[in-house]
Structure formats: structure tokens, C-alpha cells
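Dear U.,

For the methods section draft, I wanted the exact inputs and outputs in one place so we can describe them consistently. I've listed the two proteins in the order they'll appear in the manuscript figures. Please don't edit the C-alpha cell lines directly; just add comments below if something needs changing.

First protein:
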Amino acid sequence: MSSSGSAPLNIMVMTEGCEQQFEQLKTHLETCVGANQYSIYPLSTTTYGSPWQSSCKAVLIPAEVQPSDWSVLDAYLNAGGCVVSFNSKWNHFRGFPYPVGISPGSLIQVKLFLDPTSSPFYVTSICNEEDATSQEGITSDSKVLAKAVLEQEDAVTMAISVKGVGMMCYMDLISHNAQCDDTRSLEDDAPPRRDALRQLLGTVGINCSDQPPPPLSLCYLLASDKNLVEQFLQKAIASGSLRNDIIVGKENKVEIVLRDGRGGLPVDISPALNHIYLLPHPTDGELIGLPFDVTVYLSHLQTKILGRTIIYSPVIASTQTLFTGNIPFTESFPAELGTIAVASQQMRGKGRTGNTWISPQGCLMFTLLLKLKSQSRLASHITILQHLVALSFVDGVKSLKGYEELDLRIKWPNDIYYGSKEKAKKIGGVLITTHAMGNIVTAAIGCGVNINNAYPTVSLNSCIEVYNKETGSSLQLLTLEPLLATTVKKMEDILHEYENNELDKLLPLYYHYWLHGSATVQVEGKEATIIGIDDYGYLRVQFSDRKIATLHPDGNSFDLMQGLITLKSHN
């Protein structure tokens, strides 16, 4: 099934709620399809109700997974979806017959027919080709994709088409077989197995890549004033959070990198998804050649507080979980630092409601720490913050000379779009995570916008190129460093305006960029008109009987671009 618009496609992995297995399989799949090709999500019978089908490229069913309800996958496949099973025990799918008579055994080498030059890889069970192809219901377009190296009559992988694309693979997704006592190491078999997996997935239209994911990198901590970095270190030490140069959080640990007596760096730095290495005061030489020029960003920054202390990493798990996964680390930054984390690439980028944000180079990706007194207007209306952040980016770009007519828009509650109505395409979004300590509310403001990439979504610069062609203009393409400085400055101004005035002062500007003015939607089968947002940023709709419903973004299911709302709370 294809997704609508320019949204990136997802690969769903059937894991029946086993989070550890999913993370292992996700990491393995990323070596085959590339970390920035698809978003990879878990799927189980308990999450069938979520709207996943329209943006799903394929459902993968690993070995040993036995869903209790096949009917949803059956309907998905027959509606044109793609299901790939790596389960050697699965021999039944209603309306989708598979060969039976599989017998587990010792490791046997097989070779794909798709590429005569491919290396053999091991599988742990086979099915006789004659038995397989004689099964009732096997269609004429079925084909053998691999056979045993020594016994040519034995097929181990079959491709069978119904209305969608289905494939039964008698191999494991990853190299393991706890029941096999063969002394040969399946880990040595990993490279040809990955090659085989790329070829198999390619037959069902999944774009694969032989480029390995980039290694995670060091994080650099610097500021417009070096004393700001020292304030962080002193507070971390004083609070007791920094022990043996490490600050430990719930999801990650941050290790402060110390130089030797000659100013050199340790040789044993090995960043991991949950182990971040942070280097304070990097030298100019250490910053040369990095994808994001921190010095250019700081030279353009005109804020009083926000963004003046920066953590930059070329490749990180997530700028959001850097803070949200380590509260002691986050609490070590005084409010007056206005700390921002920036990455050129994320391996585990975060979106709303657990979604993944695909984060290749060329995207503007940052998380900014905002510390508020609990009695402040913004802290007591914290849900309005995501709207103000989206407004900051859109108004920041459109405030640049010559860029005023770019058709940047805001989609409720937290998305940034280019174009209006049916031509609107998503280019970015906002994610806010908060926690409170004492009388301080800390908001981790995450934002990601595609500036330069043709994939996974349309990019802002490609929209500028189209605008130039259509209008005869010659606007320069935007670069990340000045654009980030402009966004953070606009955010500081808008937040100050909100704190010192009512929301009503900002609403005309917000509605000017809004995609939903006077739009009609279907709410539980009833037609309603969108009339705006309330003081907390919740959506307000009015029915024909003049009754008004206030809808919370986390309490309802929305597809505003299709005019559909599933109402879960109605005031």
C-alpha cells in the first residue's frame, strides 16, 4: 500500500509486544534498508486498531511469532499490502496458502537464484520444492528464489502472490538458532545473510541499501561565552549528578570527556545509543569539517538567552532523548544557559505518540531546553507551547527579506507544512516533553524540519526552487546555521510576547498561517466546523446545533487533511 502525500513509508515488524526482540530486529533491518529509508515500527494484535495500513510498505513476521488474529493481516494483504514471513513454522494464512511439510534440521547452505554471484548463507529448515509447488492454491506466478547448494531439488524460499505481495522465507531474519547444535558460527554467516535479505526484500519493492548506518559520534559542548559551559560543569558537580565523570539517567548515561596533560583526547571513546560522550570546549581544529558549523550559527544568533549554549553531534541517537532520557543531566543546565542540542543526523529521532522521525543529513534537527517558573503563564498553559514553536519557525522564515510570500503553513497541532489545502506537504514537526522539579517546569522542545533532502519528505529548499521557477524570483536556498539562529531568535521573541500579553495578541498571526480556517470535518459522523484553538491550544469545533467540542491532541484520532476526527472526549 502506498502512503498519501509525501509521508515516508513504514515497515511494520510483527513482534507481539516483545520490545527487546523488536529493537534487535530493527537494528538488523537498518543495516539492510538504511536508517533513513523507512520508519520501522512494532506491530502486534494489540495495536491493530491504530491507522498503520495506509503508510505501510510491508509487514515482516519474524520466526517464532504467532499472532492470535490473522484477519487484519489477511485484509491488509488482499487490499494490496505486502506481507513477508520469515517464520519457518507458519503454514497458514486464510486465503494465502503456503507450503507445508517443513522439517527442522541441521544447518544447510542455500544460494539465491536472483544473483549468481551471491554468497551462500545458512538456513535451519527446508521444504521440498515438489511438495511446495504442488500445494492447492499455489499460483502460476509463484517462483523459487533460493535452493540448497548441494541438493538442487530443495527450495527454501517461495514467493506467492495473491492480490498483494506475499513471501514465505524459510530463513531467520537474524543469525540465531538456539536448538541447533551445529558448531559452525551463524554470526560468521551475517554478511551473506544480509545480502540475501536485501535481495529478498527488493523483490517486494523495498528499497535496500548496502551502506551501513553511520557510526555515532562525539558530542561537543560550547557556548557564546565559555563561562556558560563552566556553569554547567559546576552545577553537575555540586548536585552530585556527576560521578566519575559520568551522569547516569534512566535511558542513557553522559560521560564527560577529559583531555590528557597535553590536551589530547582518550583513545577509547566509543559512543553508543545509550552512552553519550560529551567534550566541553572543543578546539577550532576539532570543529573543522563537521556538517554543521557551530561558529557560523553563534555568529548569527541574536538572542539574550535561548540557544547560546550548544551541544552539537554529527550523529546521535536523538537530541530529544539526550535530555528526556537523562533528567540529572538536564537538571545540570541552569535556566540562564538556554541550552540547545543540535544534530546533523539522528539514529532514533522522535515524533509524537511514539512515532519515529527519519533524520538524515540536510534536516534541521534540534532540542532546546526551556526552564519556566511554575507560576508563569506559559508553565500553566504548557500545551500551547508546541503551537508557539511551530509559529516561530514559520514566521521566522517568512520574516526574512524576500521570503514573505513562501506558502509555509501550520497544521494543528504540531506540524509544519508547505502549500495550502490539497497541495500541502509536510516538511517538519514539533515535539514537546516536560517534567517538573520543585517550582521549575522544564520543557524539552524538539523540532525537525527537512531543509535539503528530497527524501523522506519534500524539502523546504526544493519548495523555494519551485517558487523561484514559478514567480521568476531568485531567492537563495536556506542554510542550516543562519536558519536555526533565526528560528531561535523568533522563538525567544514570541515566548516573551506570550508571557507578557494574552494569547489573543498572537492568534491573528497564528491563524494567518493556519491550514484549517473554517474547514469542515467529520466528527464521529457529524459535520463540524473548525473555529480555532482555546487558551491551551486544544482544537475547537462547532456542530450544526451550535454546540462546541474541545478536542485534545492526545485524546482523539485525527486526519485533518482528510477531514476526519475520531472523538474520544466531548465537552
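Second protein (the one for the lower panel):
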Amino acid sequence: MTYHDPSQAITPPPPSPRRGPSVKPAEALARASLPAAIKASNDVRAGRSLHALVIKTGRPDLADHVLCMYAHFSRADDARRLFDETPNQTPIATSALMSAYSRRGEPGLALALARAARPNAFVLSGAAAACGKLRLARAGRQVHARAAVAGLAAGPFVTASLVAMYARSGDPGSAAACFRLGPAADPAVVNAMVCGLAAAGHSKEALELLREAWAPSAFTGYTFVGALTACCDDDDDDGARKGEQVHAAAVKCGCESDRFVSAALVDVYGGVGDREAMARAFRAAARPDVALHNAMMVGYTQRGWHGEALGVLAEMRRGGLRPDECSLSGALKACGGLRLLRAGRAVHGLAERSGARRGAAAAAVDMYMKCGEAGEARRVFEGEERRSAVVYNAMIAGLGLNRRPDEAGEVLAGVGRGGGAAGLAAVGGAGGAAGGAARWAAYAAARKRGFAVEKALLWGLLRGGEAEAGGEMLRRKMEEPGVEGWTAGVSGLARLGLFSGALRLVNEMRAAGAEPNARTLASALKACAGLAGEAQGRAVHALALKRGVARRHAHVAGAAVEMYARCGAAEESRRAFREAEERDAGTWNAMIGGCAGGGRGREAVELLEEMEGEGVAPGEATFASVLAACSRSGMVEEGARQFERMGRVHGVEAGVEHYACMVDLFGRAGMLDRARGFIESMPFQSRR
């Protein structure tokens, strides 16, 4: 148990051996050991027994020790009673009681206590923390002024709390000023600045101040976790590059092996789909724990690498680690993605036996629905007494996937009648699964109860193909769509093939004062490709270049490459590809696909070889484009060679599209016997 030891700050004068009655050696030993026993107590029951012994032996000087013990165990009421009974209330007792109130979620009581107390570093720090939790910027400034008058504002303990308070109160400027005026290279202050600003959504300011305060001796693993969180949340769509810079700094400071830093690195690299970097960050950890394995599973499942996610679960069990709710939910999601019903049942059974049933319920519903077992999904759903929004979402989306709109409507109607706040928030997940009347009735019920579900409903409408209703929702019912809402609309319309509507929405977005981000511009470029509108595409690409996202983001570069290729601008397509600083498999596929569309077989094969040389693994889409390019260029033997390499070298199983390309290749060359042989050898019956 750790808390502030009052004996380190207030040391009572030693008793004189010439005064008072003599003390027996055994009694003296008991008295001397009481403070250590109170500090070492590991539960409140033992602490109460020691409190009784303190009263029995007449040791009022140990009141602070006992009060700190109660505060540590979050027994605010016991701490308050002792505080009120103590005639001389010390600043240490006050700060301990304030800590107990804050831990119990009552920062207002902590702040009231601080106002009546003599100021010291602990009291003022607790008061600043309470103001931050209550978002009371004005009261926080008063605490700051009080600290300045007392000459305590420049101390690391108080400075750290003030920086965190200003960050949580939505005043990053004051947080930065307080940080700059505080002690240089103090880990507590640096961590408060980085983590406080990142948690409050001021990621850009956190990273700028971190760069300004570069001092390896002041940086800990906690610093880098906060910085990497800021990279994930950075609004300028450049989080991956900044994450690499933070990673390099962590290596320099010797913090790369910290498992919390490794987990944060896995999150950053998983967000951009860098599988190799994820693996390196995982291997760098000194002792990978459950949380780090979970981060790997989340990264894999988010990118659709379900087999790798199940491999992580197997590795956990081989290493003697016990999977928790997050681990089992990730494994169930992976089983659903791979349609592995038998494995999914085994994982669900493990969740039931290990007490993780409630936490894994939504993932189990999703898995059974994806495997076509709607009845089993319904049983899991009905077995949940208190259903969360995630469980409702999984059930509604699954019923839509299994083409059961009436049942989806019933679930939505149940949510609207009284499923609770969490259930109402799931209303948008239905998309086109349920009838319009049921969905809009649930939406009306949600709004009546004050729940903001507009963005979720927008996604549902667009996913369900209701573009008109989605557009109406975006323009009239969402008071502040924000970049996220506008991007959802642009992306949804582009996916529906309503390319002109998507581009109009981009113009409306800019007119409303919202600047498109990388995801918005990638969707807009795809819309231009769908229209074969080179002039519009050039304008969107120019905006992406101006915003600095065209070269740094692989998905934007890939969309630009595809747009120019579809418009017949081969040279512009090559330029966009070569200028891209980040190229993932999608970017390479876009370029090779452009070669296929233009009948440039030799260039497609050369790009494939270059792709392999850079360590990017080609997939099914890559080889489909290469084979199509060979077919249109008359490169029969090269096409046959690539078809053979596809499975032998890269382990990519040939699908319908690959066989169709080979049949087309032989047919164009007049080799009808070989074409017939390929048709007869198609293994599709066994695959389905």
C-alpha cells in the first residue's frame, strides 16, 4: 500500500527520558511498530483493528497515518469521521481526505475542503485536480492564484496538477504557459502535460510541447504512452508519421521495452495496417502481458487479418496467460470473419466457463450471425438481462445480414419502448435491415429521451442504400455534423455509386466551414474515378496536396492513382504513385490495376516485382490485375507463370476471377484447348 507517510513531513519531538513514567521495552517496541503496521495493512478490516489499537494505546500522533489508510482504501466516510474528531487538522490529513473524495467521484467535496484548509503543495494539487474533474476553469484559476501567493506555483507537484487542470478545462493555452513556467525536465510535469492534453483532445498541442521539452532524462514510459495516444487522435491525419517519430524517441530513451509503450505502438501501427511494425513493437516488450496481446488482436481484427488474431490467442494460452473479455471478444470476431463456426463455439464456451460471458456477448452474437446461425445468436441475445448498445447493434446488424428485416424491426421497436439509453444508441446500426417505420419510431424515442444518435442513424441509412433519407438527415436534422458526419455522408454516397451527390456534399461541407480530412478526400477521389471526371479529380487532388495528405497517406495516394488511371491519364497516375511517401498494398493494386485497364502487361509485371522487392505482400486483387494485364497484352507464358507463382510463392488461392483471367488469356491467344482445360479444372464446387 502506498500513500504519503506523515512521518516524513511532521516528526514529533522525541520524548525525554527524564519526563513522565518509565516505558517498558515491549510497550516501546509496540508503539514504534504501529506506524509501519498501519502503512503495511492490506485491507480495511486490518486497518480498523490497528485504528482501535491506536485509540487503546493513546497515540493521537498517529491520526494522520490512520486517515491516510482509510483514504487509500477509498473509505471517505471513515476518513471524514476521523478528520472531524481530530483537534489539530494537518495539511496532510486534509489532502488525504480530498484524495478519498476524488477517488469516490466527489471532487466538489474535495474542493470545498481545500477552500477552508491551510495551503500546502498537497492541498493545492488536490484542489487543482478537483477543478479539472469538474471542468471549473474559473475556480482552477483561483487555485492557481492562491498557489502563486503562497509561493508554491512553481513546484513540480503543483505545476503538474495545474497543467492537467487547464488541459481538462479546455484551455490548452494556459496549460502550455503553466508548463513552460514550471520546473524544466521534471517527469511529473511532462507526463501531466502530454497525457492531460492528449486526453482532453488537444493532441497537436501535446506533441508540439513534447518536442519543445525534449529531455530524455524527464521522459518515462508513461510519457510515450500519452504521446502515442495523441498520435492516434491527431486531427491532421499525420498520426502514423508522428507515431514513428515518437517510437524513435522511445528507443533513444530506453523505453521501447516497456509493455505499455509497446501496446500503444501496436495501436498506432495497427491503425495504419503496418503488420511488420506491429510485430516488431510486440517483440520489443520485455514481458508481453494480456493487454499487449489484446492490442495485437484488435489491430489484426480491425484490418481483417483474422487468422493472425486467432494465432495470438493460441500464443497467449501456450504462454500460460489467461484470456480476458477483450481477448475472447477479439477471437470471436476473428471466427466470425473467417466463418469458423466450430472454432467460434469453442471460444464462446471458453468465455462462458471463464466468467467473461457478459463482456463477450456482442462478439458472440456477431460471430453466430456471420456464420448463419441466427437462432444461436438470438439465444445469446435473449440471455442478456442488461443489453448494451453494442449487443443491440450486433443483433440488428446480424439480422440485416441474414435478411430478416421483420425481426430487426421488432428488436428496434423493443429498444424504442424501453431498452434503456445504451439500447437506444444502437438505433442507427440497423441500416436497411429493418423497416423504415420501426427505425424512425426508435429514432424518435431516442431523441425524446435526449440521446444523440444522429451520426449512427446516418451511417445506417447510407449503409442501407437510403441515400435520399441520409442526405436529408445530414442537412436538416444534424445541427453540427462535424468532419466525421460529413465524411460519413461523402463515403456512404460514394459507396452507393452516387458519385455526383458525394462531390456536391464535399462542396457543401467546405461551404459550412468544415475542412475535409484524408478520409473525405479519398472518398471524393473515388467518386471522381467513378464519374471518370478528370477535371474534378484534378481539383480534389490539388486540395489533397494543399492539405498535405496526398503523399503522406497511402489510401489517398491510391485513390488518386486509380482516379487518373480511370480517366486515361497514365502519366499523371504514375506521378501520383511515385510521389507517394507511403505505399500500402492498396496503392500498389491501384497502380497495377491501372496498367491492366490500359493493357500495359509488361509494366504490371515489373510493378509486381518491385512490390515484392519492397516487402509488400501481393494479394488476390494484385494477381487478378496482373493476369488481366497479361491477357490484354498477349503475354500468355508470363500470365501462366504468374498464375503458378501466385499459389506456390505467395500462398494466394486462385479464385473465380483468376480462372476467368486465364481463360480469357488463352482464348484471346486462340489456345482453346488450354482454355477448356482451365474451365474443367476449376475447383469451385469444393470451395463452396
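Candidate sentences for the figure legend, describing the second protein: The two ends are 60 Å apart (CA to CA). Residues 596-688 form one domain.

Thanks,
Y.
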